[in-house]
Amino acid sequence: MRKILAILISVASLGYSSAFAGTLVINTDLTDPAPKAAFDWAFKKFQEENPDVTIEVNNFDHEGYKQAIRNFLTTSPPDVFNWYAGNRMLPFVRAGLVEDVSDIWSDSGWVDGNLTEGMSHAKKPMTIGGKQWGIPYTYYQWGVYYRKDLFTMNGISVPTTWDEFVAACATLKAAGITPITIGSKYLWTTAGVFDYLNLRTNGYEFHMALTKGEIPYTDPRVHAVFDKWDELVKPGYFLENHASLAWQEAIAPMVNGEAAMYVMGNFSVRLFQEGGLSDSNLGFFQFPEITPGLPMAEEAPTDTMHIASGAKNKIDAKRFLIFLSRADVQEEMNKTLGQLPVNSGSKVNRDPYLEAGLEMLNNAYAMAQFYDRDAPAEMASEGMKGFQEYMVNPDRRDKILERLEKVRQRVYK
Amino acid sequence: MIWPIFNSLYISLLQWDGLSPAIYIGISNYIELLDDEYFYISLMNNLKWLIFFMLAVPIGLGLAIFLNQTIFGIRLIKSLFFFPFVISQVVIGIIFSWFYNPRGVIGPFLDKIGLSNYAILADENFATYGIIFAGIYPQIAYCMILYLTGLNNLNTDQIEAGRMDGAKGLSLFKNIILPQLKPATFLAIVVTVIGSLRSFDMVAIMTQGGPYGSSNVLAYYMFETALSEYGYRMGYGSAIAAVLFTIMMFYILFFIYRMYQSEKKGL
């Protein structure tokens, strides 16, 4: 039966490729230099391997893409588009705009082969309702980036426990250095801090349950997270005026030596380096342990590729997804991207931050996507607003958490 | 023109994310709105915009009188004063954000008066005023131009007559010049009210309604809930739009009524 199906599909695929002369329409928001270069390489390589396919790329501006995706998916769907894993793809999946690609994830579901074994560990974030909706091609770690020279100058070693971390902040503050820089104008940076505090205080399961809306925000365990946060906010360990700065602007104090740490994703390394920092004075460490003995889960947002349900050329689109999941392709692309390949068969750049990140993630108990990808959009937006307000006015914690609880009850109805 | 209005009123009765099927929920969106502190903050900010934006009218008038001279190069000076109106609001927003940045242009001055590292756009109490100040900058130029043309059309005979009768300085200005500028004043107030309702662009560029929603205005709040990255609550956004529409409607009706009254008097 399966064989007959396979033949039927391959016949259909032949029909397709001649009928459409193999045009593959790809919508992306990869306008930054590194992603653009990585994808230009991938497109070229794919065309070399599949000379019958012509790739047509529509590149959108990164911010505009978030709006555009809703329009193009409903009105003129491309074949392939990039997006993010977890809850961020949920509304599109639920609205039936994303193609189910479970067949390329299963062992022999599709004639042209399937994803390699190296991808099997990444199946879970791509799964909604027992089906897979795309493939991941890159991810990166979050953690604490710090000024090595400022640490040595003040006699601080890399903190591995919460007490050491708070003590390090106190020492830096006493030396006239802002311990932690942050730019919260666009809100999401605050969620990075919250996620790690929650993952370390209450653990991965609790964090996931909270972002799934199963736990009230007024729960004492959420308050425990804010107790820890208080220890950083109340003594003023975060950069002043962070609400007026974008995340990139908050890098400047660290480059100038006025601030020592930044809870950030690995994509920030390039900006640090452009600012003049190098391996000798810029380091990375894992967010320290808070509750002793709790398995350490990490924050590792994943970027993904999907097929639109209205795609005209689904055969080549699936070929492209499989191509993109290959170890050699991910290795080469992530070399350019400066991020981590998802395929476990790919090698990682010789780069101290990536190597540290990979080691950390390989030992991670579990991986969270990020607050605004794990929680639904409405909750995330209110939550991050609340986190920012809390960081400016820690005294309003109760009011903020009550408001978030109200939002939670509405959103997860 | 009419259909979109009614359509959006209808959407305000739905719960709809723009993709999935819409669910009819009656006036729940409006009930939620009544209990939404961000809504009240935005409404208050709209009011602040309206009140403080009115300052553009007298300041514009002052500048116009100051510039209404015939000395060498006045045309150039006038055009320099008019310049802010020519620049796009977006550019003004960006430039003022740089100004306000504690590491920016005014930072060193603030240091001297003891306000070191003060970022107005990060201060929940004053962020709105910071944006209004940026918004009023081109608006003053606009009012000034309206008054300059008004001043050009002044009836010199009347002024001469007034002078003869001993009117000078303030009384000349108040009793003779200002009444003649009435059409210009009328226009300046209208465009300023409209300008204050168009606060959306400045807010979007300078703070995105932040910090934590404290500098939001209704128009931006509507956009945020209905169309932003995390929003897509079309129904709720439409409910806000309906409120904004009602407020504008009242203003316009009042305005038409006033016009009608003065026309009647004129006859």
Question: Quick gist of this model?
Answer:
Chain A is of the alpha/beta class. Chain A has 18 helices and 13 strands. Chain A folds into two domains: 2-138 and 303-344, Periplasmic binding protein-like II (D-Maltodextrin-Binding Protein, domain 2), CATH 3.40.190.10; 142-299 and 365-411, D-Maltodextrin-Binding Protein, domain 2 (3-Layer(aba) Sandwich), CATH 3.40.190.
Description:
The complex is a heterodimer of chains A (413) and B (267). Chain A is globular. A 5-stranded mixed sheet of chain A has the order 2-1-3-12-6. Chain A has helices at residues 2-19, 33-49, 62-74, 90-94, 102-105, 148-153, 162-174, 188-201, 204-211, 220-233, 251-255, 269-274, 314-325, 327-337, 352-362, 371-374, 377-392, 397-411; strands at 23-28, 54-59, 80-84, 127-128, 131-132, 135-139, 142-147, 178-181, 259-265, 282-285, 298-299, 302-307, 367-368. With 413 residues, chain A is of the alpha/beta class. In chain B, strands 1-2 form a two-stranded antiparallel ribbon. Chain B folds into 2 domains: 1-35 and 233-267, no CATH class; 41-229, MetI-like fold (Orthogonal Bundle). Chain B is an all-alpha fold and 267 residues long.
CATH homologous superfamily caption of the largest domain in chain A: Periplasmic binding protein-like II
Strand portion of chain A: 5-15%
H/I helix tally of chain A? 18
Strand content of chain B: under 5%
Radius of gyration of chain A: 22 Å
- Alpha-carbon distance between the termini of chain B? 33 Å
Largest sheet of chain B: 2 strands, antiparallel
Total domains of chain B? 2
Work out the oligomeric state of the chains in this entry: heterodimer
Low-confidence stretches of chain A: 1-20
Low-confidence stretches of chain B: none
Briefly note the structural class of the backbone of chain A.
Answer: alpha/beta
